[in-house]
Amino acid sequence: MLFESFDLVSALATLAACLVSMALLLAVSQQLWQLRWTATRDKSCKLPMPKGSMGFPIIGETCHWLFQGSGFHASRRQKYGNVFKTHLLGRPLIRVTGAENVRKVLMGEHNLVTVDWPQSTSTLLGPNSLANSIGDIHRKRRKVFAKVFSHEALESYLPKIQQVIQETLRVWSSNPEPVNVYRESQRLSFHMAVRVLLGFRVSDEEMRHLFNTFQEFVDNVFSLPIDLPFTGYRKGIRARDTLQKGIEKAIREKPLCTQGKDYSDALDVLIESAKENGAELTMQELKESTIELIFAAFATTASASTSLIMQLLRHPAVLEKLREELRGRGILQNGCLCEGELRLENICSLKYLDCVIKEVLRLFTPVSGGYRTAVQTFELDGVQIPKGWSVMYSIRDTHDTSAVFKDVDAFDPDRFSQERSEDKEGRFHYLPFGGGVRNCLGKQLATLFLRVLAIELAGSSRFELATRTFPRIITVPVLHPTDGLKVKFYGLDSNQNEIMAKSDEMLGATV
Ligand code: HEM
């Protein structure tokens, strides 16, 4: 008995000794890890390194970030200031918030900083993508792309955008079950990219196959670059190769499809624009550009469309004011959208609609920020950004903390009205589409798409939340509601009657 209790005591003592040594080892290795990164400071620069913690060896603060979500950055910013260092997803990073700091990073493109995509993203998007181009090559490529998003080009895409949105809303309304808005918005933005931008006429079956392959590609664009069977990276490469084959086939068949077509698509404009700029694109360049455009449009537009629908549900007064504006401009008459009234100039002159879209993109900004690498050591907010460090400029945090927005957390479209113009109180306070030479190329197209969606929703749909409460919003990988946002849609006939009978069990807000 005595021996047994002695064994227990010694086992407990050994365990305690092990735990203490492990804690000590962890503390020492953590200190060494912090010192390892402090040692990378540029000694020729007198300024201190940014404050912050590099977390634990190798994993850094990745677990804190995953658990805390968007609260992670807010808590670090409160503790260490607008420019702080951390270590996320296997790499050291300096996170930058605030209009003045962001301005310096964005205006320093090619000089102070350059793009810095993870290796998997660079490889999967390909060497000819904008994401992988810098300096003069980037400038020339953007020039070729600029025509794709010009006023004339947008005018020619408009009827197709409207048609794709109308078809989608019809399908949503004919579904007796609530729609998962985020998932279906992804499908909608994919259809928009394939049909409107690229002008591909593919069968529903082919479209489904392309969509699934594209999702596989997107799911693995940010993965560890280990090319072994069953790794995400290998899956991403396979998906990319399948997409490229499908796109090549569609491009080769394209001249046949254009017969009788009354509009140009982005691919036509891109090919034309490249010729005009004396830089005819090879098939490989066309395939990479095509995938890059769909990739850039896909998650961002789906996130913004979902947030738009959620805000219209949350704020019926905003939807009513939108309807009033449409009535006032003769676009909505007797509860119906008037055929032929949806022209680009009409849409762009709808001031309140513009305020609503801007406010959705301010409060629910789809892209949280952009990654860069410092190409030389420079000063920011009184600290040094050492050469070689990754820098992430933050869009969402800059919106959330900007002093120019009164009652910053409130959904208030009128803050963008001519009288208040809060966004005009300084540059870089409002930047849902980034800024500087790498600002979003598709921003006009994205806002046009969101405007048409809002008009169609206001004019020809009734929709209601199908859950008791509104879902929580998460921000990783792009901002979206946790349950995708479940909504029941009802189409309206010309007398404003619901085409589908309204189910009694449906709960929540109706607009
Ligand atoms: C609401 C929707 C959208 C949002 C919020 C958005 C946001 C952004 C942001 C923040 C950037 C800059 C990233 C950085 O600084 O690293 C960007 C770049 C870009 N976006 Fe968008 N975007 C949207 C839709 C689109 C669409 C529809 C297209 C095209 C079809 C597009 C094409 C691009 C391209 C090509 C770039 C890279 C530009 C370059 O590197 O020069 N985006 N976008």
**Rg measurement, Å:** 26 Å
Ions, cofactors and other bound molecules = protoporphyrin IX containing FE
Strand order of the largest sheet: 1-2-3-11-8-4
* Whole-number count of domains: 1
Q: How many DSSP H or I helices?
A: 17
Task: Give average pLDDT, whole number.
Answer: 89
As for the CATH topology, it is Cytochrome p450
Question: Which structural category do the helix and sheet elements fall into?
Answer: alpha+beta
The CATH class label is Mainly Alpha
Strand content: 5-15%
What is the number of E strands?
A: 15
Low-confidence stretches: 499-510
Organism: Albula goreensis
Protein name: Cytochrome P450 26B1
Cofactor: heme
Keywords: Endoplasmic reticulum, Heme, Iron, Lipid metabolism, Membrane, Metal-binding, Microsome, Monooxygenase, Oxidoreductase
